[in-house]
Structures
1.
Amino acid sequence: MQNATYDIRPGGAALITIDMQDSPVNAMNDAFSVMLDEILAKLTADKASIKGVILTSAKQVFVAGGDVAKILQLREDGAEAGYAFVEGLKAQLRQFEKLGVPVVAALNGSALGGGLELALAAHHRVSLDDPKIQFGFPEVGLGVLPGGGGIVRSVRMLGLMKALPLLTEGRRLNPVQALEIGLIDELLTSKDTLIACAEAWIAANADATQPWDRKGYRIPGGDMFAPQNAGAMASFPSMIFKKTRGLLPAAEKKLNVAAEGTQVSFAAACEIESRGFAELLMTPPAENLIRTMFIQMGEIVSGASRPAVEGKNKVATLGVIGAGMMGRGIAYSAALAGINVVLKDVTVEATEKGRAYSQDLLDKDVARGKRTVEERDEILARIHATADMADLASCDMVIEAVFEDVGLKRGIFRDIEAVLPASAIVATNTSTLPISLLATGSQRPDHFIGLHFFSPVDKMHIVEIICGEATSPETLAKAYDFVQQIKKTPIVVNDSRGFFTSRVFSVFIDEGDRLLKDGVDPVLIENLARQAGMPVGPLAVQDEVMMDMLLRTFRANQALDAELDDDYAKVYEICGELCDTMSSRGRPGRSAGAGFYDYAADGSKVLWPGLADLFSGKAEMAHDDIRDRLMYRMVVEAARCLDEGVVNNVRDGNVGSILAFGFPVHTGGVYQFVRSAGVDAFMARARELAQAFGERFEPPAGFADVLDRATSLNRNA
Amino acid sequence: MPHAAIIYDAVRTPRGKGKADGSLHGVKPLKLISDLLVALQARNDLDTAQVSDVIMGCSQPVGEQGSAIGKSAALMAGWSDAVAGSQVDRFCGSGLETVNIAAAKVMSGMEDLIVAGGVESMSRVPMGAAAGAYFMDGELMTKTGFVSQGVSADLIATLGGYSRQDVDAFAVRSQQKAMVARAQGHYASIVPVRNSLGQIVLAEDEFIKSGTTIEVLAGLKPSFAKLGEMGMDAICLAKYPQVAAINHVHTPANSSGIVDGASAVLIGSEAIGEQLGLTPRGRIVATATVSTEPTIMLAAPAPAVLKLLARAKLTLDDIDLFEVNEAFASVVLRFRDELGVPEDKINVNGGAIALGHPIGATGGMLVGTLLDELERRQLKRGVCVLCVGGGMGVATLIERV
């Protein structure tokens, strides 16, 4: 037998140890299904002589999840294929349940998705009490649902009220939490006792059956219409809508499958679940989520945009110059990852303040019980605060995070390179200044690179790596490795004004301002932006980021344009104009208490009534036009980035747009947006918008071909 | 040419507080309505064998209110076996819906004498007891953009610019009018409720809150802010993106009260009235059913009345009095402003904010209340209208004869 071992224990139980050759997590792919068939055939043959069945795994995890490529394949094959697939899995799991001997899942590790479904089909679940072990249904993140009976069994085991949060939020529980809600039955401290415990249960429960297979069974907590569930059932749909805006159908579908399942027999509930899986499979968000958040993200994690340079690099000591908002956050992230940090600023006070930021965050963790005092101290000890550039001599990488001033930065590069070894990487956290321009201040431009972090650094997972003209593949590889070392997600872009993220996001803001200037009601602008899936409207975002800051960078870009004979700033010139208008009225944004919105002490905000004096707010415009202007503006700008070679592969743009500025995840990101709409449909609509509102909506000619070329699995050369 | 649908009588119980300590909590709903039928028979010396149907509105037709309660009521009241009965559910409009159905049957000449009205014991069979797909089926709720009616009322207030003070002031007016009406005996057609020993348990509406002031009301917390915050506001804004935020202004004090009660309206042809020696009190001139956008849910009264008037070929000026159910204060304020009807013609004896809204019964109660006041003032025409879940509206135009 491949992929699993089958041993009859002295006590008579059949011990099945799953050990998939091709997957470190025992993923439930076609080979897994074949293995289950073989196991079931053997168990059926041995039924009369075995006392029970124990399911366990030889890997770190029990069984963790499905095969994403398989799901995409099913989607291509169609809804019936999806339905047949989950019905097949259900049939296998049902066989375990109805075998006629007690079945125990001995959970030595995480059980996620289909793995948890397998565990639920057992009559009893025992788990190691290891806080790293996770149980949950992550399928909602893929845009589908657990079609192997996960919904039906968790509802019938736990009741609606306990099962629904687990199902609709994609939450992962540790063993203690799982025991608490009844997902698992027993916790054990030692791996050695796991099997013995299972055997003991088998011996004591020879007649084991599932609750729903017993006479008089009632769903715990009542069905969907039970009065005690009424309040929750009436609220769930709107709670889900608030999070998804109706753009991601999976959570809603899980709620409805779970609820409807309480009205019918086990078999009918299973069928409803299978149909739900098939329906979700065929939705655009399922394809978009899988392609971008799993396949393309997986490519990024495995280094598809990283040059094929041998050896994964580890930074031992990181220098951070500038202990301000960004620098202190970078220092924190690095220290957390075990890297020694030399945090430098002009004065010792400034650096101490920067270090204190890490102290604060760590103290909060200790207070919340998430970290021990020892761990906190160990992490803090890694950060060395100094005002002396010479202290950075031991760094193998230095990140500069000072003000966006070319002269200032160039001076720093000169100073730091005088101190660093030749092999060290010098990175700049600039968000606007061209890398190649800054690189002229470096003696070793091949070791120079952009590392654009996002604020707040501790929460934003993405880092935009920007390659200058002279940046070597080795430097890129080291930068890539460093970003992964601090557990963040790297996207790779080539040097160009605004890089990728700033450029594409700035046109969202610019278009919001244009709509306002065109007289569209600001309430509509903000609401329709959110309806389209943007987390925050363009006007609120400007207030957050602060318009005086935006104006400064706009002017800096204008100055650079003059210097470089470029016209980048034009791309968001209306934003520049309105930032000027608002700032000059003393309304630069949120931290001033006044921007497009008025901000109250309790954190609430209301659109400034005075806007009506500046902008009519009465212009008639179709809601679809308002929404599409905001979204297509970003996508067309992203298309230009691809066309110009700012990004080389769709993965960096898709993942980057979602993680850096909240481009709606249901679209799969800026390029998947085009694919999902259909390239022809996208081009037609973009041209329509261009005709009606201006050539900024005109997609680059030949974009379809560019998109095809950029959608490839090949590594970057 | 349709037959006239004459209102021969319209009776109602007083409304008891809809909780365990309410005066009618100890009286089963079947008895609430069957005793009204007994009273109807006595007041009109009615040969019950001539009544073809007892159509009862009830929004929670389960348990004590299940099984076609109209028929059960006829049997319980000892009426002739020849009387049929049924139950109708159009949510809050049920008690007027039955009046309209009865009117249509009589006008068409298919039936001669029908009792309409409704019953609702909210203390014994609470709201939600019969909640079905509309309130629980997530697929439907998402498709509809379902929000709880209180959130809808807050949306109406937001769109109409009605502040917390506006709705509270309206509530105070309702209470004041009701207190005067009760004290001065304007509620002529109330039949006191007796228990099974024959003792009067309630003779007057007990939900009215004397001593209500706007200051007291101002201290109450908005009832629907939490539901709104959890997600229902997001649903409202998705349908009404011109709204920046929902202003949650409704509280228990400016929303309809939860109460127990029943109503019965005797409707028949002119011929049967003559035959049985019945005295006409009014005539149903027109009826209307409308349905509108379900998220805002409660904005149908104005469209319903416009449809009603068009069918009757009358104008707003032809109407002397309006009974617009006070589901929530903003509903009536919107009706008033949308149609430009002077407030001194609307709910002149108070409304459901003060008296309570026994859901399935209210429509029939409004007919009785309206008729009492048309008679008291010797006025001619009145309109009853209720907002209804799902965006529906039900309206009836009556004339005093």
Note: Chain B has a mean pLDDT of 97.
2.
Amino acid sequence: MTTATMAREISKGGSVSSSGGVERDPLCQYLTFSLWGESFAIPIEHVREIIEFGGITTIPMMPPFLRGVINLRGAVVPVVDVQARFGRGETNIAKRTCVVIVEVLVQESPHMLGVLVDSVSEVLTLDRSRLEAKPSFGSGIRSDFVEGILNLEDRFIVTLDIDKVLSVEEMAALVGASSSGRPEDPA
Amino acid sequence: MDMAAARATLVQESRELLSEMENALLEMERNGTSEEGVHAVFRAAHTIKGSAGLFGLEHVVRFTHSMESVLDGVRAGRAEMSAELLALMVDCGDHLSSLIDAVEQGILDRDPDSERAGALLDRLSPPVADSGSRALTERVIETRAEEIASPRAVLNDAWHISLRLARDVLKSGMDPMSFLNYLSGLGEVLAVELLEDDLPPLSELDPEILHLGIEVRFSSEATRQQIEAAFEFVSEGSLIRILPPHARIEEYLEFLRTMPESDRRLGEILVACGALTPNELEKVLAFQRESGEKPIGKIFVEERIVPPVVVETALRKQAVTKASSRDIRVVKVEAEKLDILIDLVGELVIASAAARVAALGEGAKASAEAVGTLATLVEEIRDSALGLRMVPIGEVFQRFPRMVRDISRDLGKSVELVISGAEAELDKSMVDRIADPLTHIVRNSLDHGLETEAVRIAAGKPAQGTISFNAYHETGSIVIEVSDDGAGIRRDKVLAKAIERGIAQAGQELTDREILNLVFEAGFSTADSVSDLSGRGVGMDVVRRNVEALRGEIELQSVEGQGTTTRLRLPLTLAIIDGFHFLVGKSSYVVPLDMVKECADLVESDLHGGIVRFRGEPLPVIQLRKLFSVDEPPSRRRSLVVAQHGSQRVGLVVDQLAGELQAVIKPLGPMFRNLRAVGGTTILGNGSVALILDIPRLAQIAVETSAERDLGRTIFFSKKQEVPSCN
């Protein structure tokens, strides 16, 4: 699936969720993407757009999961390496590396964040009954990052709790706590 | 202009007047009564009364009238502007201000707090003016007499009746003559004039259509109701105007306005039938010309909201304001419009930088030149646009005299407020956001800093405490100082409290400055009791956070027993700055241009650790490549950017200089709130993001790092790491 068709799916998905009301709608939509060969999904309501990786400005002295900031049509948007956030090392930049722009609420006001992924796969539309409760362990990442499991015919996909994974409060605290500076005197 | 807009103007003007009035009152409380001050207060009350009358806000008129009467007594020397009267006037001002607030919310017909109004009115009339009460009554009588023998009343001692009967009145069997006959039974018809202007040529004349207007001068003892009764059965579409004997000029003015004929023509008819003297007609017409230009007056007459007399006062007032505003030539613009303009200018600056990059890339000389010209203009537009939003800091200081007065009274302390540097300018958006931090600092000074009179005398200080405000510009920043000559901050008390609260550890060696800075830590409060004023949950930590959110810094200086100075240093604007652009590794950085003193090639042999020999002098430097842990291979030639901040000079060792640019500041967002060295970001001409470095904090980090080098750790971030709660 190309990014362009994905964008169409996303805008469709967005309208479904806004008009239908999530609770009553028997169908739900997820964007799936891969990180280090493993598939993950996030609810489509959070996704604003998907862009190619590029033009990132690194910010000095940041924890590894904060890759830097990009210029998204005049707005400066931080890019989060979720792979690093899961504690599995930094994502390598390759040809299909993408930034998924998601919207999260920070103290009631919407904020844009970029999520670095190896590649985006597809938008899944499926019955809500396919969403299983999250297992207490076994998903390989911090359990509060997991929203649930999508039970597909041939495989399982972990869905991420985007508000936890991209908790600005938590990340901001980590930005402060990180001391990636070198012990030697910089002066 | 509609009524709502006109009312908004009333509210705004009244607020300005009230603030002037308050200033004048407080000034007089401090420095004694002055004629000028009394006049200012009077003028405010008087003007608000006038405007309120225009809108039929009778409760406001009543209230201001009482104030005005008392003040007039003072002006005429019949009463004294005593301390009680001053205090009373301040209270009255407060009430008036709540009335205006109510008007803004659409409460137009009543006093929302009539109890307070009543109490104030009681205080205004009898007790205040023992010597003035007689004068007051006299004045009231005087006014009444004036109303009766108003110089504006016309000489005509007869009624004037003007009839424009419906054109089809003859068809319904009414004869205009019958009205005249009926009137003759009530009194004497002195003169009748016919207006035949409407008459068509004889060939087109329809005898069943009435084309005549009738003006009657009528002398009678009858009441208005009796005269009106004569026209009770007149058909719809008729226009009948009845003016009493000795009507006011203004009434004739309104009459002329509402009649279909031209004013001059009708005026002549009035003269012909003896209703007006030629002289009076000229007056009316002069009025007409004058008020014709005033749209607001028209609205009132058209909408019949107010009797014309009030309009007259208003017109006169308008003439005055118009004349004075012509002198200053000020245009009031909504702040929001300015914000939009400045946002657009920001985009323009970025777009112009992009155009420049493109033109240089093409290598076409002509387009590069054109883009250069454009860039110069954009820069000028940017400066003018930002200048539009610059306001004197005095706008913020203004609120403090009142606050200091009220709080010091509550606390039983005697405090003088001294303000200087009120004319220093900064961006309006900053002004709105520093008011709260300043308020908190002043409250702290009043509550914790300044001692009571007895304690001060015992300490050999003047009984009256002083709080002073000062503001001045310094290298692209504005510095605001709030000083008091109070007890100062007791280091031992601060330290004990900090240890008790777990902010500091016992036995920790702290410098004087570090101890003072503990005050800014969250959860710190030295007040033993939570008072009504400060210590209301928010403390100096919130003040610091607010100031830092504005890319500013806050600093405390305190000498025990002598006082405390809180110094805020803030950027002049949060929107666009002139920046200097350089590279470290592949990343772009920008520092405010007015902090950059000079740039030079770095002579590697002059670099000795953290010090470089620069023009023969030692200069402390920060090697950004090391500080930022940049991995890319170093460039062969490095450069030095010498920055000045206050009295401090610091060198930045960078990889490559890129020159000046205009930086539209984009905030980094909540994720980076603990990041100290970067104050914001900006977008470069090539579309990439550059980081704006905060030099003062960078220097601070360098100091801390070299201090903590022995411990083998580096501090780049705020020391206190609390995970902020989501509220």
Note: The interface with chain B takes residues 55, 57-62, 66, 68-71, 74-76, 78, 106-107, 111, 113, 168-173, 175-187 of chain A (CB under 8 Å).
3.
Amino acid sequence: MAGNPMNIFDISGRAMSAQLVRLNATASNMANAGNVTGSEAAAYRAIRPVFQSVTDQPGVSTVKVQQVLTTDAKPVKRHDPQHPLADKDGNVWEAAVDSSAEMIDMLEASRMYQNNVQVLQTAKSLMLDTVRMGK
Amino acid sequence: MGLEDSLFGVHGKALELRSQRLSLLASNIANASTPGYKARDIDFESALRDATDKGESVNNAMNGSMGYRVPLQPSLDGNTVELSTEQTLFAENAVKYSTTLSFLESRLNTITRALRGE
């Protein structure tokens, strides 16, 4: 944090960015759910961000996205010889995305985002009240 | 005892502590979905006592009375943030911050009036 102590705006702001990364990951997973490819290697696998807390002083910490992992879920093999992408055995692979889990993740991420916005709003109005003190 | 202590009494230190606790609770809310994060909080009463009676600095008073939250229902990923608890305490802390602020404000008004001699 470039020498400056972390303040409440850093804490909530960076947490919002982290939740936004999570929301983006969920969106690309959802967009690719049900996608079909002709080989197992090419099939889409769900991606998921890994959160890590960043501590400034004891107790004051925010969160960052350490990395975005590709999950090792197995794409679903489906026998569908009519499919234009089917391989020589007539198999296609469906993207390894659990869409109900993604929906839940999306809901949670958006709730967490809202919580941080609320924190930011409260902190902002308190800071403004403090600035106006005595006027 | 510094000038600000004799002017504002307990409220100056209280406002500083409230503001630090606001950051602490905001950190808990920010890390609500970080695996392994342990929620922390301070015992406000003892921190305020350390800062006023014992004359410790606000940072020392904060660190001295900080502890980890005991979760009602521990989650599997090791995170001990319970949003309902944190949000309630955050709201409570925000209201008390405003209260301290209005105490300070009326104190300021009193002093200003005394200085003007109206």
Note: The longest strand of chain A covers residues 47-57.
